Amino acid sequence: MPExxxxxxxxTRLRIGGQNGCTSPSxxxxxxxxxxxxxxxxxxxxxxxEFNRQIIGQIIQDVGRRGKYLLFSLSREFLLVHLRMSGxxxxxxxxxxxxxxxxxxxxxxxxLRLSLNDPRKFARAWLTATPDSLLGHLGPEPFDREFxxxxxxxxxxxxxxxxxxxxxxxxxxxxLGNIYTDEALHLAKLHPLRISDTLSYHDAQRLWTSVRxxxxxxxxxxGASIDWVYRGGDFQNYFRAYHRSGEPCPECGVxxxxxxxxxxxxxxxxxxxxxxx
Length: 277
Fold this sequence. Notes:
This protein is α+β, with helices and mostly antiparallel strands. It has 7 helices and 11 strands.
């Protein structure tokens, strides 16, 4: 599933155009002249008929991100897209034959088409005038100025949960998934089973810094490409713990272990990330 760095990379590509050798154009300023809903469950709201009626003629004014959601600011409303397990957004010409697994297509002036491709059919889209009705449950953004170490420490103290499931909870902190949670916890030298309200202020500050550091590095490297779903990044070549079971820890050389936390595969160094009782 694309996480914050991958979604940020996609949003930037759609907003400003080609990067990292890519020649795709910016979508900002493009008017939508037609819409095609090819898999009805992809569109949560409104109905396909109402979607076509409302979105045609609107202009894409900006493309951003909130948590793992892509947020298209249109001239009258907002289009939200969550790629989930296997979704991807593709820019192509509007006369191209729709590829297998295209679920939603937007034709734009200038001969462009934005297509949502999703082999597993989990991706979802919403057209709404009130994005907060969908995004209001999300926790703070890791890079928000208001999200300080003090705020993070208090949020950890207000809960009594294992660190990894808590960091994966989008209502606690928006944007983290399995990859960057494992990476941040390893960098902070904290065990994923550690209970949140047992962390000292120093522990919390170290984790706050580590979260921002691994996400920043992920964005700088255009995300991680580890399977057939998301391609284009190279952060996978710099993992500290994730997907490195049996390989030496970059800090101490002890082999990385894979354990299960909250039904999720989790990668830790048993030496650097000792579980404190």
